[in-house]
Amino acid sequence: MRRGAMERTDAEAMAAWLLDRAARFEGVRGADALYFSSESHALSLLDGEPEENASGVEGGVSVRLIGRDGRQGVAYGNNFSKPSLENLLEWSRANMLASEPEENITLFGGPTDTDDSALELFDCAVAGSITQDMRMKACLEMTDAARSRDPRVLSVRAAAWGDGTGESFYASTAGLSGWKRSTSVSSGVTVVMQDGDSLEMGAYGKGVCHLEDIKHQEHAALAVEKTASLLGGKPLCTGKYTLILPPEISACLVDEIGDLFCASLIHKGRSLMKGKLGTQVAGSAVTLTDDGRIRRGAGSGAFDGEGVPTGRTVLIDSGVAANYLYNLQYAAKDGVASTGSASRGLASLPDVDTSNLVLSPGSLSRDALYRSAGDAFLVIELMGLHTVNPVSGDFSLGAKGVRMRDGAMGEPVAGVTISGNLTELLKKIAALGDDLEFFGATGAPSMVVRDVVVAGN
User: Fold this and answer.
1) Which residues face 204 on adjacent strands?
2) Structure confidence at residue 128 (pLDDT)
3) CB-based contact 93:64 (threshold 8 Å)
4) CB under 8 Å to 153, separation ≥6 — which residues?
5) Which residues sit opposite 186 in a β-bridge?
6) Domain 120-165+180-228: homologous superfamily in CATH
7) Structural contact between residues 214 and 125, judged by C-beta atoms closer than 8 angstroms
8) How far apart are alpha carbons 64 and 403 in whole angstroms?
9) Angle formed by the axes of helices 216-228 and 132-149, to 10°?
């Protein structure tokens, strides 16, 4: 087969041929190859009628050459014929020669771990067993569940389902090789609700590895519940408030924090965590880890993009910055071992990235946490987290939610802005709930943050 997916034996033979040819180039010290293939399906209904219906199969291969002077070049393609592969090698060499020399560019010599069976990333019930009728049934069930939940549902703007499989093969001239394979399934609902003159749109959804873990009708109910709580929202008076962040919002915040521990950003001066190891950077309740070996984790894998075994790295330990995340290049710069945090796409050189980020839960139930917060602002939507300055930590974010009094839900809130500095915000995290939830590759519980500036009326 020249395009799309290949049989495993054919992919392995192709990678071996590419590496053998690459090793013959003058001035090349090493090379690695990455093959990837995937099959995906997506269906979405708008008020019960099909809006999106897509399926596809993709496949590709890339080669990275490493020169003796530290230059790197990568090229990729999706045509597996010999002439195309030869052209791929030439492009990789041209890109290598056009690049600048770098220090500490190397290949991992092993040993590596290629057995990911204990991680349960592949579900046979997803691979080839989900029919189009099943997808349609799930979308209709989500539509009906949302409509029946509340008479104020004006429109089910999207009842969406997605599923897919993917596998990749990594091999290098250092003698490493290994396969990864995984499945994914997701569902989500977006609704528009109206109460008098108030109109609000909201959504809820999740993605998992195994079919049995998807709760699509529950997602519909939560989308309606979340949106209903915001109807008729009005601004708070400007001042300092105690914030309650539910798991979904906490997870979004954790995503931003985790990236700040990537060594590539540290070395480029693009992270406020530079030089902070061993210092207090968050409240004592905060312990944050990156764990590439969580069972059924969306970011899990036996090895990273350079063949290094993955593991668990504590980033923040009881509020103290403990470790950075490394690939081979940046680990060598700092004289430490790689944490198995190399990330690589077909068209990119290895970089540093998170796997599964986990904010360790506390001991309080959600109700007890809400009561402990007293008068507070429960944040249900937080807009603009991607605009947080990673160097200064300054932020100004739009927010919607509910006013809380002694743990009880009060009036809806909208039209407010939460502003401050991420360094200060982390230190104001006072308590964490026991309600850890995963959203994609990030797990977080509810949290209470004290004395945060909210601008409204």
Assistant:
1) 189
2) 83
3) no
4) 146, 147, 191, 192, 193, 224
5) 162, 207
6) PmbA/TldD superfamily (3.30.2290.10)
7) no
8) 54
9) 30
Asked if 374 and 444 count as a contact pair (C-beta separation under 8 A), the reply is no
* Cis peptide upstream of residue 111 (ω within 30 degrees of 0): yes
Give the residue carrying structure tokens 């709760």: 215
**Closest residue by Cα to residue 186 from 174, 198, 204, 201:** 204
**What whole-number distance in Å separates Cα of residue 379 and Cα of residue 170?**
43
Task: Give 402's strand partners.
Answer: 378, 412
CATH 3.30.2290.10 domain residues, the chain: 120-165+180-228
**Tokens found for residue 281:** 């950077």
H or E stretch at 207 = strand 198-208
Provide φ and ψ at 20, rounded to 5°.
Answer: -65, -45
d(CA 56, CA 54): 7
pLDDT string in tens for the chain (457-residue length): 345 678 999 999 999 999 999 999 999 999 999 999 999 999 999 999 999 999 999 999 999 999 999 999 999 999 999 999 999 999 999 999 999 999 999 999 998 889 999 999 999 999 989 999 999 999 999 999 999 999 999 999 999 999 999 999 999 999 999 999 999 999 999 999 999 999 999 999 999 999 999 999 999 999 999 999 999 999 999 999 999 999 999 999 999 999 999 999 999 999 999 999 999 999 999 999 999 999 999 999 999 999 999 999 999 999 999 999 999 999 999 999 999 999 999 999 999 999 999 999 999 999 999 999 999 999 999 999 999 999 999 999 999 999 999 889 999 999 999 999 999 999 999 999 999 999 999 999 999 999 999 999 8
Answer yes or no: pTM beyond 0.90: yes
Phi, psi of 86 (to 5 degrees): -65, -40
Q: b/e string for 76-105 if b means 16 or more Cβ within 10 A?
A: bbeebeeeebeebbebbbebbeebeeeeeb
3-class SS of residue 345: coil
* Paired tokens of 10: 């054919």
Give 63-99 pLDDT, tens digit per residue: 999 999 999 999 999 999 999 999 999 999 999 999 9
Angle between helices 8-23 and 82-98 (to 10 degrees): 50
How many Cα atoms occupy the beta-carbon half-sphere of 413 within 13 Å? 29
Place of tokens 């924090």: 257
8 A C-beta contact, residue 406 and residue 375:
yes
How many other C-beta atoms can be found within 10 angstroms of the C-beta atom of residue 36?
A: 21
